[in-house]
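pasting for ref
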Amino acid sequence: MSTTDVTPEAAEAPTGSMKRSGRRFGDSVFSNLSIGSGLLIFLTLAAVAIFLTLEAWPAIRASQEFEGTAEFSLIEYTAPYVFGTVLAAVIALIMAIPISMLIALFISHYAPRKMAQGLGYMIDLLAAVPSVVYGLWGGIWLVPRLEPLYMFLNSTFGTWPRWPGFLPWVGGEPVVALFAGDPTAPMRNLASASVVLAVMVLPIITAIAREVFLQTPRLTEEAALALGATKWEVIKTVVLPFGRSGVVAASMLGLGRALGETMAVLMILAPGATFSWHILEVGRHQSIAANIASRQAEASGVDMSLLIFTGLVLFVLTFIINAIARAIVARSGPKS
């Protein structure tokens, strides 16, 4: 058969085969890179966990020399810092979530387009500010200006003669006795640290919530308006249910940032290690990250292992919180 007898299909077959082979090769490379990138995250987490466990093991092994039993001494050392870390993060989240959602709703549904763009840039800029800047701002400028508010809260809510009997009690005091005690200036207390943490996590929650609210189907909003719903009713019945899982995820990201924050808390909070609900008193609380940062320069041997053990506790705590957040998002996602 001569070359002129070759059909066009036969002539194009090698080229098409090469293209198909090239596409398969590219798909294989991209698939392997994706799988490797995903496995890299698990390997990194595993490496961090193994490192923390190995470095903390001398403290676990030698803890019987401190208090007689390993469980008692380690819990006694770590529990006050866990309490301070969680309490500061929860208070910061309680303050930040409502404000963040209101800002996100204003940007996504109320503000004019140019104003919304400007506010969005400002929110993103706040998220990029280093934590040491927040610490300087909080310690030098914010703390003195919060003193009148703290004194008002202490005099108004901190001196109630009788607390309701149905409230839960911890350590001989009701849980709501946050403003009790004897606050003294300068107010470098847990309340001030929580306010700064709230300012730090606010742009993170706002940015994610804003993007989630903007993804609400436009046709669904227009259908609600066509049925006679007001702007607030549209937000309440359409926007908020749609963005519920996103708001939960944003809040958990903010909580993770608040739990692990170091410099801002270190620069504002006067350290202490007690189980006190008096957030206005100075020298009562300390976070795990700030405690590690303040003591690691002079620590060595078993003392360093103790600090690493507290870091391991913070690592596990953050992992558990993120796992709970993923479960909440998975449950609320299909409903949205």
